[in-house]
Design brief:
about 350 residues, alpha/beta, seven-stranded mixed β-sheet, three-stranded parallel β-sheet, 15 strands, about 45% helix
């Protein structure tokens, strides 16, 4: 879906004559959702295909494996979806060639912890995270810290592994704790199974998540009824009155015959940001593109408006969505305190 979003952004600009008189060509390499393969894919794109900029990967773990290669070759890397803070800043040092178009884990974790305590009046929580995912572990840490800071009690922190199928032993343990909320910072494949099995066990707690939930397949996996009383934060809402959001959704549906998910929207944002950077750079030189990306300001993209901060992370809004009978319902919009 992220590739579809990038392709749509490029198709739109190419149909208008391209950027600075040149068409943009997208070359895709499969990383098989593995860190070692992500490193190999980026190496191929830079050394063999001679790409001037690299997108991807989707998950933080895979991006963290790809970034050192892009940095060593002085090729800009833009991730649309990796939210772990270490992607762009590590040990206090900003990675000069690495950028993202999504907000970072601390922002999401803080949003959902505050939503739990202030909007849902939750006093107790359990955190159930994917221990094989940097994305999930980062969100779990921030949520737990902020939930406690807000006066709540984290009763337990549990873990599963990506591609696990049976979660009932841990969910039975969680049920006995009777938390007000369970925070599950993971991707929709596992989340759907966890939600379904939790409800089958009679867990009625409100279930919370982050942008990895935001896919129509979540309903297919979990079922509409089990997803009632679940909430997650994401990057945009179809119910937003922003005309640009509506235009993106309409264009995506016309191109692919389906609703965009969050990955498609963020891919589109990344494509739009690159197009803007190349225009302002007046060149496809990687160093000039890098400088232009860093200077991105008040850029209108599919999910809203992006300004790049000093850490190469975007200053942008988030939304909290509620699942109700299989539909995403807009709850509130949150702006970053930057």
């Amino acid at each position: 879906q992220a590739v579809n979003g990038i392709n749509l952004a490029f198709k739109q600009v190419n149909e208008q004559g391209g950027v600075n008189g040149k068409k943009i060509k997208l070359i895709v390499a499969d990383n098989k959702s593995e860190a070692s393969e992500a490193a190999a894919a980026v190496t191929k794109l830079i050394t063999t295909d001679k790409c001037k900029l690299v997108f991807g990967a989707v998950s933080s773990s895979n991006v963290l494996a790809a970034v050192p290669i892009a940095e060593a070759n002085k090729i800009p890397l833009v991730t649309a979806t990796a939210t772990n803070p270490k992607v762009t800043v590590e040990n206090g040092q900003v990675k000069p060639y690495t950028f993202r178009t999504c907000f970072i884990d601390p922002f999401q974790g803080k949003i959902m912890s505050e939503f739990a305590t202030k909007s849902l009046n939750a006093k107790t929580a359990v955190v159930y995270a994917d221990s094989s995912s940097d994305y999930s572990k980062g969100l779990a840490k921030i949520f737990a810290e902020n939930f406690t800071k807000n006066g709540g009690t984290v009763l337990s922190q549990e873990a599963f592994l990506q591609r696990d199928q049976d979660f009932k032993a841990t969910l039975t343990k969680i049920k006995a704790l009777n938390p007000d909320v369970i925070f599950i910072p993971a991707y929709y494949e596992e989340v759907g199974k966890i939600v379904k099995q939790a409800r089958e066990l009679g867990i009625n707690a409100k279930l919370l998540g982050a942008d990895g939930w935001d896919d129509s397949k979540l309903v297919d996996i979990a079922g509409a009824q089990p997803l009632n009383d679940t909430y997650f934060c994401s990057h945009y809402s179809e119910q937003d009155n922003d005309a640009n959001v509506k235009d993106f959704i309409a264009a995506y549906k016309a191109e692919y015959g389906e609703e965009p998910n969050v990955f498609a929207a963020l891919g589109y944002d990344a494509g739009k940001m690159l197009v803007d950077a190349i225009k302002r750079a007046g060149s496809d030189d990687p160093e000039k593109i890098r400088q232009a990306l860093a200077e991105t300001k008040n850029l209108q993209v599919g999910t809203g408006i992006i300004t790049m901060d000093a850490n190469h992370d975007p200053i942008k809004s988030a939304v909290v969505l509620e699942m109700k009978d299989g539909q995403k319902i807009f709850k509130q919009k949150i702006n970053p305190n930057k």
